[in-house]
Amino acid sequence: MSAPDPYLRPAFPIADRLRRQLWGIVWTLLFRPSPRPLHAWRRMLLRLFGASIGSNCHIYPGARIWAPWNLTCGEVVAVADGAIIYNPSRIYLGSHSTISQEAYLCGATHNYEDLDFALTSAEIYIGEEAWICARATVQSGLRVGPGAVLALGSVATRDLEPWTVYAGVPARKIKQRTRRES
Amino acid sequence: MSAPDPYLRPAFPIADRLRRQLWGIVWTLLFRPSPRPLHAWRRMLLRLFGASIGSNCHIYPGARIWAPWNLTCGEVVAVADGAIIYNPSRIYLGSHSTISQEAYLCGATHNYEDLDFALTSAEIYIGEEAWICARATVQSGLRVGPGAVLALGSVATRDLEPWTVYAGVPARKIKQRTRRES
Amino acid sequence: MSAPDPYLRPAFPIADRLRRQLWGIVWTLLFRPSPRPLHAWRRMLLRLFGASIGSNCHIYPGARIWAPWNLTCGEVVAVADGAIIYNPSRIYLGSHSTISQEAYLCGATHNYEDLDFALTSAEIYIGEEAWICARATVQSGLRVGPGAVLALGSVATRDLEPWTVYAGVPARKIKQRTRRES
Fold first, then answer.
1. What CATH number labels C11-175?
2. B35 in contact with chain C, both atoms CB, cutoff 8 A
């Protein structure tokens, strides 16, 4: 009898898969079609499924959260339509952080140097006032410093320093982010 | 009494939000499910909502246009399934320009150097016979010259010169585009 | 009488377009909403439409296959939610290859140096145990060697050598992929 193929082992336990199936149904029927201004309704749904969400967060109806029970948001966080929060491990979104359209917080990877190609997940931390721009991607296990900016379509493969602007695939530091009164 | 949080100011006036809500319903019910060959039907819907569209444009059913009233197309323009026209400011698509699958014309950004992180939009101009390839992205405020090509998955952060091929994130000039009889 | 505009010639013959329309309806009604564990059901649907699929392949419900009749999979292949298999020409997925979320195998392009801007497609070959990471893109006509890795959000514009890790837009070789017992 040969050993079972490691590629065929379920990546997640059955209870977790059932919970996600249930959340998927709720997302499709109650979250996704909700009118855009009903942020309080969507916060309520996410909290029902275990998310920790501060006041005044705007999670738009087209935002996809993989596991609300692994999401921790501060206050006044925005997660835009088409953004993907893939969080087999916890993802933290600091207060006043912004996750723009189609941004992708990719909280898991495969260990491609292991023979069994195991799925491994790691926490992602997005600092206060950081901005993950549209179509940008953050790899699992990273810390994005407070106020950091990851530019349009860029991919972060290392931690981002606070108040610094990064761009490219992989993302490189391009300048400091300074702020002035407007 | 403290000042209101600038992050919580609505980015768009109420009339604009209602109009987009209405367009969203029409898109979902009448545009998105329409059979692929019914280009004339989709042009009619877009024109009903204020778009200026020349003859023989092929706007595919999976194309997402944020605000038809801010879209100006020449003739024989193609906008593929999954392409996103995000146009809080006007976007111009020149005749014979092609916007491929999942291309993203991203017509707004945030001013991240201002304390209030204001949303700012700016027009995008795509020249005649230009080609925005699949998964490529154009930043707000740019002019893509006639005949320019933005390669697969690339991100334009500056104006593109006419009849020139660009690739990368951010996109760099890689060669001239020449044409011959086929 | 002027010559017809080459941009307006249908890219595909009518029989092909009808077959895809039919497959689109089946995908929407029977494939997309199927529960995640029902891999056998989705394999059956794909085979009904002409796909060649080995045992134990996991094609997830959100995976989009353009033309099942142009898909050849080995055994134990995974194609994740949101992955796009755009295959006007045949695409081969070797055994134990993994196509992650929102990866894009883009099997066609336009010949932008021809006056008629013709759509041209070419086969894509993904080797055994290769991994196309999330949001990565493979251009038409390429061979991805066995065991090669195309990193998160990268774009392959040339063939990838076996057991080598590539990253960037365009993708560059960054290291060998070695494996050890886990």
1. 2.160.10.10
2. yes
